[in-house]
Task: inverse folding
């Protein structure tokens, strides 16, 4: 078996959202590498070795995957959602660039997945139906001031916004500040969607006007979407539909 | 059979990128509604009626789909990519909001798909590995000045950028202006990725530095991705890998 590396997206949780391309790559794998909870989603089978690892060791995990691929293993690195969106693909290429030259001749494929913002948006309608941006709210890898700057510029551009990693136990206060900045920059009651654990049995969706959004509505399993100034609600039983019109008038 | 409406994403082209959830919805459908080239991707079978329509009639198409669902048909509206990203979902909710009240009690589901920017990004590495934005470059439904404003703010925020609908026969000049604005706003040689017809037999990928990007490198089947100021290339045989590092230093 020739070695190689596939960096795949498992989607938000439901197996019905895993692409056949990813399923095929998993079926051919000799080794699965990833954050523990994502590796747990892969069924065990003879000939398959699982390599779960902790959070925040992305670069070491990527190096390990590349080493095994160079040794002739058929390695699959798993991410939740899409591997290219705040997930493992960038870490693998960082490791590749700083690693030995022979790694560059490996067969390396990135296989896309349904990223959390698209799954969350679909559950409420089409809140990302116009121009939008995606921002990782964790300041583990970038200065907090840059996050605030991007929020203000995104509001000025009137982008819809999708926030990954809004809040964690290690960062309890940042998301409160995000809501302050947004209220100050937007000055309206546009809808905010809190979509927790989309497509899993723990799924919970909540839609509130921006001034009523509270930090404790989000945790690390929550995707937060914010509408544009034009985003609309359609009332119905239960959670309303939320959509952003395609048109902006002159 | 109870009527209902599913608005589904067929992904960029390859059937291996269609989710099992969408495949299941298509198998249960009585009627398929969509832009002709997307409806053409659905195999005919007894009991299934195909309703292809022209471009730029999204609202009429959405109304037709809702009417059939209200008549008890099992309707699937198909989009390329993801239905919530510059596709049919927003049009259906626009039609729903302005339509008869009883439409609001219909079962309406949006089923996500692999949107073009994620498929294109995966083919070259991880160019969207940091904060990014998605902008529709067509000015059919918004003023051109708003597009330029968003480009300048996105560059100031140092977002990676994904451009949908960069160029068409009806709009031959806009994309040239986009490249002028970007060169003026960015003042560097960050990579630009032209990804045409990703995952189809006509796929063609090209990576050039921003100052060397030319309007004729894009057409309506091309997804254009622009890196951040930190995006990096890893040379190899053929198209280089392109990735945006996860970290921004203080």
Result:
């Amino acid at each position: 078996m020739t070695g190689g590396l596939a960096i795949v997206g498992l989607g938000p949780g439901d197996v019905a959202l895993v692409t056949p391309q990813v399923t095929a790559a998993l079926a051919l794998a000799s080794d699965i590498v990833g954050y523990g909870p994502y590796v747990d989603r892969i069924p065990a089978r003879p000939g398959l070795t699982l390599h779960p690892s902790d959070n925040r060791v992305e670069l070491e995990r990527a190096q390990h995957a590349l080493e095994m691929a160079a040794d002739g293993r058929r390695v699959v690195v798993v991410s939740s959602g899409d591997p290219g969106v705040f997930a493992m693909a960038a870490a693998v290429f960082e490791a590749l660039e700083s690693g030995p030259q022979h790694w560059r001749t490996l067969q390396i494929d990135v296989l896309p997945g349904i990223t959390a913002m698209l799954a969350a948006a679909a559950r409420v309608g089409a809140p990302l139906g116009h121009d939008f941006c995606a921002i990782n709210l964790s300041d583990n890898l970038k200065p907090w001031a840059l996050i605030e700057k991007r929020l203000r510029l995104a509001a000025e551009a009137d982008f819809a916004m999708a926030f990954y990693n809004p809040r964690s136990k290690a960062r309890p206060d940042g998301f409160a500040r995000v809501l302050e900045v947004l209220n100050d920059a937007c000055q309206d009651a546009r809808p905010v969607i809190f979509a927790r654990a989309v497509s899993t049995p723990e799924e919970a969706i909540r839609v509130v006007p921006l001034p009523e959004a509270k930090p404790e509505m989000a945790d690390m399993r929550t995707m937060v979407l914010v509408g544009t100034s034009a985003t609309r609600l359609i009332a119905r039983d239960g959670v309303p539909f939320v959509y952003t019109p395609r048109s902006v008038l002159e």
The radius of gyration of chain A is 20 Å.
